[in-house]
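Q&A log
Question type: sequence-to-structure
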Amino acid sequence: RGLAEVFQQVFTASGGTIVGFESYTTGETSFQDQVQRIKAGDPDVVFLPNYENEIPNQALQIRQSGIEATLLGADSWGSMEQQERIPELDGAYYSDQFVPNKESKRVQDFITRFQQAYGYSPPAGAAATYDSMGILFQAIESQGSIESAQLRQTLANLGQYDGVTGTLVYRGSGDPTVSVAILKIESGTVSLHKEITP
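Response status: OK
Response body:
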């Protein structure tokens, strides 16, 4: 809901028009009422910042209703690429923090080592955890201390960190500016459409 509200705010501020804002309760499987209200608004895009286990059914019901709008999602879609092909998602875009097919030696080395250790490809959460530990180790090494107040200060002023999830930049706070990947689903394959780096 938070992502949908931010999307609505930014999209409207950028000149877009929101033709519907629907909600549902986790566990629901029929979205026909919401889909019909969305269809009545004749949208160009439908933003579904929902979890990967809900998206296939929602996309199916959207397409069955005749809505041809481009589907957009968020990083919660990331694990869907390991599921079977979902034709209703062809042409959809979503944002994520990790691009497994990125042409980067650092990323490919991480994937190889992860697969050797665990026997499967790393999900985005594993890549984010890997970067988190790398950032922490870099802060400890540069400070020579594990004292929490010093570490917080060091992390806040760490500057740029080039990780497997992209570029993270700390500018005086514990909340970095991060790279965002826009991924596209086409014929069941996820590929990098565009990377936005701070």
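Response note: The chain has a mean pLDDT of 90.
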